[in-house]
Amino acid sequence: MRSRIRRSDDFARIFELSADESSALKHAEDHLPVAITPYYASLMSRTDPEHPLRRAHLPREAEFVVSEGEHQDPLGEEKHQAAPGITHRYPDRVLFLITNQCPVYCRYCMRSRLVGKMDKEHLIPMSQWEASLKYIREHDEIREVLLSGGEPLLLGDERLAWLLKELDTIPHVEIIRFSTKMLAAMPQRVTPQFLRALKTNKPIWMALHLLHPLEITPEFSKAAEKLIRAGIVLTTQTPLLKGVNDDAEVMKELMTLCIRNRIRPYYIFQCDPIHGSAYLRPPIEKGLEIIEALQGSISGHAVPHYVVDVEGVGKMTLAPQRYSYSENGYHYFTNYKGETARYYDPDSPAPYAVQGTKLHKQEKRN
Ligand SMILES: *Cc1c(COP(=O)(O)O)cnc(C)c1O
Ligand code: SF4
């Protein structure tokens, strides 16, 4: 962590920077700090600014352009804050922000309003934690606590162990979930002491923030294996980013590498409309196209949900439309290869009477 590349002259020493990157590095700190671990930098191209991991983590001028529909807090997390550090948006689970620092800073971070503020790095005061824990203790409908941040695994081992013990004493909390970039950006975090700190009576699930097959290195796989042997369940969450991973072949490779490492793909997220993210945000259509390409062509275990998180309504799962129309008791379906077949079920009304479906039916008749 201490050896992270942070200063623009260090970037200039390590990378052949483009003019765009170079000028953006000079004032990026005002928006979102820049930091990259030496290990993660070693996965990037020194010469190519369009290298996927470089695009996602080195700033460029487009990041300072605010486009229509973009917000500082696109999911309205502040508005839905139930207690300090706690967002309670779904009935049985809460989001608990426990740090505001990260091993690397992602240019598309939807919490850029909170993370990496230099003066208060690491410093979420104990009083805030106590207030968050109090809320969880007092709400017995909470079955799952999602520890996030910033990077939750940046907590020291002792503090992490303390927090897990506290959660262990709350009977209604059944599951702990971490959302973490650590395994991709700094798999060296998984030390024997760290694994000891994670020992708790509750099941721990970890959603790994993964972008690209380049991140699935031998170091990554070893760290993942240690976590799995310690009884932790690993899943993924992958933001869909233009020029990084908005490509069916890249996603196919990433997801199949995950299942080979016993990691269950969970979410592909449509990139949240944070300020300055337009250059990284692909159209929703792209996400659907990728799911379409994954379905059927690779193991169902390797196909994540494609999700658009929408302020006010939450995560919306989108999938290619398989249902075509219904007629005379038959329901018509089209699979990933475009083959159509019908299923007889006269008692059901057409389950998806949507505009697109009707159009589809008309096309058929023509
Ligand atoms: C994403 C999210 C969750 C978890 O949702 P799942 O569908 O269980 O993955 C919980 N709380 C908040 C505020 C979230 O944004
Ligand atoms: S690791 Fe997560 S919280 Fe940190 S900058 Fe990246 S997306 Fe944001």
- What number of domains? 3
Mean pLDDT: 92
Succession of helices and strands: HHHHEEEHEHEHHEHEHEHEEEEEH
Unreliable sequence segments: 354-366
Query: Roughly what percent helix?
Result: 25-40%
Beta-strand residue percentage:
15-25%
Protein model, in words:
- The protein has 366 residues and is of the alpha/beta class.
- It has 3 domains: 8-64, no CATH class; 77-318, Aldolase class I (TIM Barrel, Alpha-Beta Barrel); 323-361, no CATH class.
- The chain contains 12 helices and 13 strands.
- Strands 1-2-3-4-5-6-7-8-9-10 form a 10-stranded mixed beta sheet.
- It starts with 7 loop residues before the first helix and ends with a helix.
- Residues 354-366 have low confidence and may be disordered.
Keywords:
disordered C terminus; single chain; binds pyridoxal-5'-phosphate; alpha/beta; TIM Barrel; ten-stranded mixed beta sheet; three-stranded antiparallel beta sheet; binds iron/sulfur cluster; 366 residues; globular; 3 domains
